[in-house]
Task: structure prediction
Amino acid sequence: MGRITSSIGLVSGVPIAETVEKLVALQTGPRDQLVASVKKTTERQTAIVDLTARLIALQFSSNALGQTSSFDAVSAASSDTNTLGVTAGADAAVGTHQITVLRKAQSQQSITTGFASRSAFVGAGTLAFRFGGAVDPDTSLGLANGGTGIPRGLIRITDRSGAAADIDLRYARTVNDVLDAINNNTAIRVTAEVDGDAIRLVDRTGQSLANLRVDEVGVGGKTAAALGLAGINVSDNSATGEDIVSLGRAVQLAALNDGLGLRISETLPDLRVSLRDGSTVEVDLHRASTGDREATATTTAANGPDARLRITSVEKGATWDGVKIVFVDDPAITVGNETAVYDASDPENKTLTFHIDAGNSTAGDIAAAAANAPLLAGNFTVAIDESGDGTGIVEVTDTGLTSGGAPRAAVHELSLGELIDTINAVAPDKLRIEIGPDGDRLQLVDLTTDAGHDFQVEGLFGSQLARDLGLDGEADRDTIEGGRILAGLNTVLLKSLAGGGGFGQLGTLAITNRVGGSATVDLATAETLNDVLDLIDAADAGVRAEINRARNGINLVDTSGGTGNLVVENGDADTHTAEKLQLATNKPTPRAESGNLRLQTVGENTTLASLNGGNGIAAGRIRIYDSLGGTNSLNLAADSIETIGDVIDAINALAVQVTARINDDGDGIVLVDEAGGTRQIKVEDIAGHSARDLGLLGEGQTVEIEGEERSVISGSSTIRIDIDADDTLDDLAAKINARDAGVTTGVLGDGALFRLTLASVRSGDAGNVLFDTTGLQFEIDQTVRGQDALVLYGAGDNAASTVLASSRTNTFANLVSGLTLDVKNVSSAAVTVSVTRSDTQAVTRAKAFVDAFNALHEKLDGYTSFDNETFKTGVLFGSVEALRIQSDVSRVLTGRIFGAGQFTSLKQLGIDLDQDGALKFDEAAFTAALSQDRGAVKQFFTQEESSFSKRLSDAIESLAGRDRSLLVSRAATIETQIKNDNARVDFLNARLDKTREKLLLQFYRMEAAIAKVQSSLTAIQQIQAVPPLGSTSSK
Result:
């Protein structure tokens, strides 16, 4: 049916729409009343929500004031901000510190030899460089004397002319610092050099008026003695001090093996030691803490592993430790019917006795019979040890002792002493590890009775710990003498070369100099690279052995003055010594060059933070693809990934057929495909640049490994720049800069020649770069050495009362706990750093608390207002919620806090209510209270159960907390009410709409009826009279 489209009736002229709306309006009263009610309820809801938020803000500010940090905050000041800046953290302790800035950090700078023009060709070849990794490292004095170091102080050296000089070693940190201090002193003519594990002094005066002598300076001086020089008082022109490099309990494990440390499993046992009596001992370092465990024992097994049994307690705990395993020959016993008896009647002498048929009972027989022994079954299980098959005959001399049932604490050995203690505690009556007599190696001693079995050490679960400890050699009767694991002064271990694989056993080297003189050098005893150099020099072969310019290998320089061939070759048929040392040559050349001997610089223990010159590895995500297209990603930002070993383990655990390990050069990670597909493996960065930093970004190359072609990515930390024959200085500079590898370069012209300048972007010792220009037509010389910043903590000339600290940057974080020191300039005078309590935090938080309360108070006043003239009220006037807020909060503000010292109220602290109910804050009174008794103010706000902040927080929690608090519950109730009322309004509106439709329809029908009537009237009006038939008209 159609609708009336005009608001006025077309027929009747009646204002239909207006009339209908008036008629409908007569029925809207209930709805309008309900809408007005919803509006007021919504206003109440808004007010309650607003007050809830303000109460929470007040609670937040009160809780902040109630934190101990409000009153423990400190501020730090430097007495010389031009020399040293200081920032205090939250944990900085109040006090005064004396800091002397000795040296600023600086970055290495180097320069190439000169070229006639910057467009000159530099010559084809490869420039290689990396951070650190020299084969002649500068040994830390902290490693000296078994890890106890060198007491800092002065020594006096007298040369043979009688001249004397005091050498200041108070700030020496390394061996080179000592050598430089002596060699740079002009008052005497004495030079110092390294000689094996000692320092050698050489008099250069050419006189003999006095002895070459070294003395301590000052009463109680120990520096000369610690350097091994105190006993020097000779009439010779040279003197070698005592050995100062040796293993000791204080040596840190991380320093062993040229800083690569020991590869120790965090989850599995590391070593199994087989002893001469046939028993074995397992060594588990870095073990986790445990609760009670099953006690176990492995029998000694005189007849070898096949006769060995493993006994395990059924229950856990220390009760089952210390049970002695005994075997007795019992004539009543036959094979297969062996019995066992457990006797714990004497807790100090518990025994588990097996009755056997001696000479016939095997380990397998006893294990089978023990399973059927009712007395034993409830206490112990007996099994054939995994090292044998159970066919061996058990002897009555076999024995064992249970252990391991008691809980154990976590152990994470950091020092050599801790490692020794852990190993010696495993089986103290069977095995002992100790430092060897020469102090340079460990040795393992078998304490058992020799029953003809081999004494040997093997790694468990692929562990390399035996090699790392130098204990992978053969035993000499009851002793395994280890190899050297701590290099001498300024040298490296031979086993760290060749990428960490070492050279194996060296033999003899045959040298023929250029005039034809020859010598054979026996290098069989060499364990360090300096050993090799010293043995060659001692052979008087007409050559001088030295470290090469790149500091990554050695050269043999002919000193004979001849012009013939320099010949270096193997001196025996078995060891291939010349080839291993890469020195084999037979040419008319003045030197034999080893080139890069590939010192291992990256190992499983290498921290990611130490890579790239101390700049570390970006913590990002990488994706790895194998040759079949399989892929998986790795998050290097995970907390568990801190070392190269962690990265390797994480990659090898991925569901992708790629294996990770240390590369053959020992300077990074190599990825090897195991999928056997046709694609190259690939690594990409998903987030960050971790793959780039690890040198793994990109696609692999095909490499033959053990006769099989594999796709490989080798992530070397050595940067190699390929130089083309037509490359100029500018081209080379652009190539270096494009690598973004921590070295920046530019072209320098001095008016005559052009050179490349190369600057490390990493400051400090770790930022020093080794450049290898072997085969190139230019060389690179260091002009500025990168060095750490040095500061001296403490005052006075007594080195024992001061601490020498270093940082690779000019920032020292936590030299003093909680303080960050920023070195700006060097100064001979100590800077006083003062750390004092700061009121700023407490005052700021107290003001914030007062402001939060006053904001609540102002709003609450508005919501509960009453106008005496208009009688208009606020939306919460007289409400329970408003009254509760006023009463509960005010009760806490005006209440007293007891048990917190002399202050019991806010008013005493300068926080009080004014006449209008708002809080006012007297900062002067507050700070005066802090000065008077800071501890009492702190207690007032912070004591756990009854502090002001705790009470106010509890009160607000009951008012506005999440769980069934007053305001939250009320807001929820109102929300429900508003929802229901709005639904009723919708219902009434719908009913009014229907009424409107009905009235409009009625008016439509009325219009239609009127229209019909009018139509009928019109028709009637149009009716005319019709004359009768046959009538005529008359005029």
The chain is about 25% helix and 25% strand. Residues 966-1021 form the longest helix (56 residues). The two ends are 57 Å apart (CA to CA).
